[in-house]
Amino acid sequence: MSKNELTRRSMLKAGVAGLATPTVFAGAAWSFTNDPQGGAVTLGFNVPQTGPYADEGADELRAYELAVEHLNGGGDGGMINTFSSKTLDGTGILGQKVEFVTGDTQTKGDAARASAKSMIEKDNAIMITGGSSSSVAVAVQGLCQEAGIIFMAGLTHSNDTTGKDRKANGFRHFFNGYMSGAALAPVLANRYGTDRKAYHLTADYTWGWTQQESIANSTEALGWETINNVMTPLASTDFSAYIAPVLNSGADVLVLNHYGGNMVNSLTNAVQFGLRDKEVNGKNFEIVVPLYSRLMARGAGENVKGILGSTNWHWSLPDDGTRAFVQSFGTKYGFPPSQAAHTCYVQALLYADAVNRAGSFNPCAVVEALEGFEFDGLGNGPTLYRADDHQCFKDVLVVQGKENPTSEFDVLEVVEVTPRAQVEYPADHPMFGGAEASLGNCNPGA
Amino acid sequence: MLGLNNKDTSLFLVIIVLTILAPVLLNPFPTESTLAQFNAGYPDLMQKFVVFGIFAIGFNILFGLTGYLSFGHAAFLGVGSYSAVWIYKLFTYNVIPALILAVIVSGIFAVLIGYVSLRRSGIYFSILTLAFAQMSFALAYSVLSNPKFNLTNGETGLQIYANDLQLFHREGLPDFPHLFGLSMVSTYKLGVGPWEFQLNVAYYFCAIMMILAFYFAIRLFRSPFGMMLRAIKSNQQRLNYTGLNSRPYMLAAFVVSGMYAGLAGGLLAVTDPLAGAERMQWTASGEVVLMTILGGTGTLIGPVLGAGFIKYFENIFSKINDQVLHQWFTFLPDGIEDVLVAIVHPFIGKGWHLTLGILFMLVVIFLPGGLVEGGQRIARLLRRLSNRDKAADATNVSAE
Q: Please, which residues have CB within 8 angstroms of residue A375's CB and are 6 or more apart in sequence?
């Protein structure tokens, strides 16, 4: 036996020494949660892949993948080229390559939070974005605030998201129920008259409640009367039991505060019951869908023709940003993007740009960069991220179902572009939590 | 030890060691490797393992021992969560009062529901519990969440706002559930070589709770009371004919089981201060039935295994997307890679239910005793193999 042969004992010693040396570190060494290490940064895309909003979720995911591609310098760059801020150059974010993880919110608060938590704790995501339900957005926004992560809300339309549930770490590009009401009411009064009796069917959660309140307020201000408001569970798929009483209520307008699969089903039920062919109080019976999307319009098919509603964005808009986005989305997937896809894509870009401008991934620096940020070229015209409640202010579109669609995607037409000034409101508006609502302090986490 | 026989003591020690070492055992793959996708050792999932473990242990006390299949156990889980969050909102973020209230309120709920439901047995009992749970769900979802009387905050879920009362909350205490100042979110990250292990306060708190719950369940299984419950399962009518009133035993088992669920619900609020109505939905009730059957009905450790199994699939498989698949198969030629991805695609991401369903079917068909039976079969096989080796050795020896 030679002397320098390795023995079992010396191997063990070396092994223990190798393991125990300086690699042991404490979590508190960082100044903020999930500081990106090693040339790559991870974003968490938390969208509904199952449940009533699964269609929207799938489209959001497509948009996010496109945004990541553009941020990393792939594809044709999409809206990066038309964006008024020029810090994005295709080298990722702050020179770090962008990677992403996805999760399924199941349109349930618990599942969405579990999914977001695993992104934060396991995948070291620096920012969470997505959601196609306001209750989920509110739940995940609260979680991100606690964890010290930036939350860029996807499609969420409830007043509460940037109202009474607003958080310093959360930002919303999408418009909200109040803006829908403010934009839609004048068009409704114009077309259907000021002497109308409205019956509301409302999805029973934060979005439905706040949208119903907003629409009722705006229409009542113009002379309409709200004769009933019935809450329907989010998980409902058949609305005939809710539609039948409308016929005998004396109402001449039905307002469907539904979205996604809910709206497709309730509108189809309403049309099947022959509501649109009825004449009540000497006027034609009308149906209104305050929050519209192309995916829903497509789902409801023939039934949407002539029905008024509002959207955040539509692919047929003529500006450069929209054209660039529709072009690159269409090239990649073969069809135009929905408003859900648009808002998610924009949020991803806005976050990346804010980090670049701040020069840091630290959530507090990002918050500072986004607050009061004015930008253009992202499809909605000049837009402001208001500092008081982290809500974007921009023009709102009033749309209606097209009578003669030329393709399965060309189902909506823009009736009016409501200017930003008409949909603005003070940050302490009573519908938005009043004076009590506050963002709190930004939380950088660990 | 502790009034347990030898076999139970070793099982109990195994459980203790496993729960304490879970952050290490569940993170077998180095952080940077591609297999890190399958690591389960992050706080949120580990917390879910032990919390739903408690839920399933409690459910098994009712279903495993008495054979009464409750299809509404999620109601108690939800009630526990709501009680805990209300303690946070009104008094303090300290978790001890929150858990005590959660257990008490769910116990009261269980007495009420059990008193009515236990007048029937078999399928009628299941339907009654299901009806009560759906009633509770509807109450929490819409009836008790109107603007005038908002007990549950409906679909959004009960949350804590900055302007809540919080009587005993003061400066210096964490703004998160805590144990006398020790915040439940604090995590110590231990880096060892390429691995990183996360030691989380809330996890260890829940783990200790589960160990206690497990100990209590062993004692209950081995007690005369447990024997009485088994007698109900084997033949309740015969038991009644002996002149014994079995209903108080049933009610006691139901209430204990409901309090376990309440504790689990309270612990969910400990790890994340939010309570949503969907926790009470029938799907959640069905899930605990699946966990128990998958793990092994009537066994001690089975429900814990089943809970871990289901939560693992829900959290790990649902997060594998096509991007990840392409990474795995990237060494293959393009055409084959795409075909493989297309084949695997329906079983991952949003298709995790499908994978879980197939595995559940396989377990129920081939291992009616659940995962525990699988483990027993493997152990038996190993024993037989080693016996055969010994026998072979013996014959060899004699031949020489």
A: A83, A84, A85, A350, A382, A383, A385
Query: Quick check: A17 pLDDT over 50?
Result: no
Q: Which of A23-32, A43-52, A224-233, B322-331 has the lowest mean pLDDT?
A: A23-32
Domain A178-311, CATH number (from 3.30.450.40, 3.40.640.10, 3.40.50.2300, 3.30.70.270): 3.40.50.2300
Domain ranges of chain A: 40-175+315-394, 178-311
Give the pLDDT score at B397.
60
- Which residue type occupies A224? W
Closest chain B residue to the Cα of A113, Cα to Cα: B272
The CATH code for residues A40-175+315-394 is: 3.40.50.2300
Residues 6 or more apart in contact with residue A170 via CB below 8 angstroms = A141, A144, A145, A150, A151, A153, A161, A162, A390
Packed helices B302-316 and B43-66: angle between N→C axes, nearest 10 degrees: 140
Query: Residue A38: its pLDDT value, please?
Result: 79
* Smallest CA–CA distance from A164 into chain B, residue: B161
Shortest Cα–Cα distance, B146 to chain A (Å) = 10
pLDDT-derived band at A21 (thresholds 50, 70, 90) equals very low
Q: Do domains A40-175+315-394 and A178-311 have the same CATH topology?
A: yes
CB distance from B43 to chain A under 8 Å? Answer: yes
- B96: part of which helix (H) or strand (E)? helix B95-117
In one-letter notation, the amino acid at residue B86 is: W
Flag if A117 and B192 touch (Cβ within 8 Å): no
Of B45, B156, B193, the CB nearest to A138: B156
Q: Does the pLDDT of residue A19 top 80, yes or no? A: no
Nearest-CA distance A109 → chain B (Å): 7
Average pLDDT over chain A reads 88
The pLDDT, as a whole number, for residue A10 is: 52
What is the tens place of the pLDDT at every residue in A312-360?
999 999 999 999 999 999 999 999 999 999 999 999 999 999 999 999 9
Query: At residue A28, does pLDDT exceed 60?
Result: no
Q: Which residue of A has its CA nearest to B156?
A: A135
Q: Which residues of A touch B185 (CB under 8 A)?
A: 146-147
Length of chain B: 400
Interface with chain B: mutation pick from A33, A144, A205, highest number of B CBs within 10 Å: A205
Q: Per the CB < 8 Å rule, is A204 touching B48?
A: no
User: Which residues does chain B have within 8 Å of residue A132's beta carbon, measured at their own beta carbons?
Assistant: none
Please indicate whether, in this complex, the C-beta atoms of A234 and B155 are within 8 angstroms of each other.
Answer: yes
Sequence ranges of the domains in chain B: 6-281
pLDDT on residue A213: 93
> Which among B42, B155, B279 is the nearest to A206, CB-wise?
B155
Q: Does B187 touch chain A (CB under 8 A)?
A: yes
Distance (Å, whole) CA B211 – CA B382: 29
What are B226-277's pLDDT values in tens digits? 999 999 999 999 999 999 999 999 999 999 999 999 999 999 999 999 898 8
Instruction: Using a CB–CB cutoff of 8 Å, tell me whether B388 touches chain A.
Output: no
Query: Does the beta-carbon distance from B156 to A101 stay under 8 Å?
Result: no
Q: Per-residue DSSP letters for B104-118?
A: HHHHHHHHHHHHHHT
**ipTM value:** 0.84
| Rounded CA separation B360/B355 (Å) | 9
Contact A173, A130 (CB under 8 A): no
Q: Using an 8 Å CB-CB cutoff, list chain B residues near A205.
A: 154-156
Phi-psi region of A261 (alpha: psi -120 to 50; beta: other; left: phi over 0): alpha
User: Closest Cα of chain A to B223: distance in Å?
Assistant: 37
Out of 2.60.40, 3.30.1660, 1.10.3470, 3.40.50, the CATH code matching B6-281 is: 1.10.3470
How far is residue A63 from each of residues A78, A123, A138, A178, B2, measured CA to CA in Å?
Answer: 11, 21, 22, 26, 59
